[in-house]
Amino acid sequence: MNKLRIGITIGLHHEAETLWNNGIKQNAAFLAEALRHCPQVAGVVLVNTTQVPITPALPWDQLRYPTLSFDAAKDSIDLLIELGGQIDGTQTAYLKQRGVRLVSYCCGFEYVHAMESVLFRKPMWGANLFVNQHYDDIWIIPQVDNISRSYFEVLRRQTGRVVPFVWSPMFLDERVKNMPHAGEYRSHEGAKRLSVMEPNINIVKFCLYPALIAELAYRRRPDSIAVLQVTNAEPIARDSLEFISLMNQLDIVRDHKAVFLGRHETPIFLAENTDIVVSHQLENPLNYFYLEVCWQGYALVHNAHLCADLGYYYHGNDVEEGARRLSEAIDMHDAHAAWYRERQRTEIARFLPEDRQLVATYGALLEDLMARPIR
């Protein structure tokens, strides 16, 4: 097989878009880094599918991750991985007549998004839905597989397969390099600052159960908790009477030990405001946020079973167990903080782009893809 020239799509919204508003563009860069390690690959470019111009303002190294418009890339690639931006029917037809393979890389909770759009009248595509039925393969990251695989397969008329999740600390390291201790956790005496940083935009990652976990721990030992900080919650704490009523049932709120804040960059908020992170997810058992928190050595109380070896894991929706793990972190984390950070990094190594098994798996996926007739 000749060495492959690969494009990975992104969808820029503006020229200097931050990497911290969602994980999609980080995902594209991490996948590019992993594929660059595959012996079958000659090179990887990022392909922007919107009309936003490519400028030096982009927050990544364009020598390492060349970034082109679709028109600039379409004649120089053998494989296009549609990840962060969708191509249309005309663009698909052009690639197909050139013999280019097309892969859908599924890293979003599209079934949940579709449900919410329909049930709660949240417009997404209206009457202009385009479902591409010409993919040569569907690659699904593990945390998306359970809830969205059938949604992808039936509509796209193609069988999907689970592929390795990829993460790297490269953007995190760049963001914290000038901070004290590179933004890593440092132990200190006294009551702990708890942070909940769920996006609060759908049911997948919502702040209610973490708040309940903090509440149970606070009822038993109020002097050990300095504050509960809930980010991405300012709008619902201001406008949702249901949320306000629920929160007002909690002692930690009544005692003015809880604050509900707007958006914050993860690495900065961790370094400046946090001792322990409390998290909860439904059908999102692996994501960048968990790896960022643990890589930096912060205690993470969570229920994500695909990375149960990280942080302080509790099962399912068991907030009682979550409160016990939170108390354990309060009591014990500082005594082994440096060891904890290094152990987390050892466990996270399986997700890094240079991991040998991860690279071998992507290499095998490429071999299988190119051996099949183009669709």
Which secondary structure elements does this structure contain, and how are they paired or packed?
Blueprint: E1 4-10, H1 24-36, E2 41-48, E3 67-69, H2 70-73, E4 79-82, H3 89-97, E5 101-106, H4 110-119, E6 137-140, H5 142-156, E7 160-162, H6 170-176, E8 192-196, H7 208-220, E9 225-230, H8 234-239, H9 241-247, H10 251-254, E10 258-260, H11 266-273, E11 276-278, H12 288-295, E12 299-302, E13 312-313, H13 319-332, H14 337-348, H15 356-371
Parallel strand pairs: 1-2, 1-4, 2-3, 4-5, 5-6, 6-7, 8-9, 8-11, 9-10, 11-12, 12-13
Overall description:
- By secondary structure, the chain is of the alpha/beta class.
- The chain folds into two domains: 4-166 and 353-371, Rossmann fold; 170-350, Glycogen Phosphorylase B (Rossmann fold, 3-Layer(aba) Sandwich), CATH 3.40.50.
- It has helices at 24-36, 70-73, 89-97, 110-119, 142-156, 170-176, 208-220, 234-239, 241-247, 251-254, 266-273, 288-295, 319-332, 337-348, 356-371, and strands spanning 4-10, 41-48, 67-69, 79-82, 101-106, 137-140, 160-162, 192-196, 225-230, 258-260, 276-278, 299-302, 312-313.
- The strands form two sheets. Strands 3-2-1-4-5-6-7 form a seven-stranded parallel β-sheet. Strands 10-9-8-11-12-13 form a six-stranded parallel β-sheet, with helices on both faces.
- The longest helix has 16 residues, at 356-371.
- The protein is globular, with a radius of gyration of 22 Å.
Number of domains: 2
Biggest pleated-sheet summary: 7 strands, parallel
Element pattern in H and E: EHEEHEHEHEHEHEHEHHHEHEHEEHHH
In the CATH scheme, the class of the largest domain would be Alpha Beta
Number of strands: 13
Radius of gyration of CA atoms, rounded to a whole number? 22 Å
Q: Give the strand order, joined by hyphens, for the main sheet.
A: 3-2-1-4-5-6-7
